[in-house]
Amino acid sequence: xxxKSKTFDTRINCYACKHFYVTWDPQxxxxxxxxxxxxxxxxxxxxxxxxxxxxxxxxxxxxKGRNG
Length: 68
Fold this sequence. Notes:
By secondary structure, this protein is α+β, with helices and mostly antiparallel strands. 13% of the residues lie in helices and 13% in strands.
């Protein structure tokens, strides 16, 4: 056992997050509405590299029907 928590190495799938979006900017094609930035890498990777912690703003996308 390495002593790290299970969530430490868990990758956040930005594609499944409601805050993730694809931009029109070819230089910065991926964005995060929750943190308000665009990047080349997936936002969860940028957050992990910047803060040392996994993304805490992940919200799984939900599919809403016509009635809400």
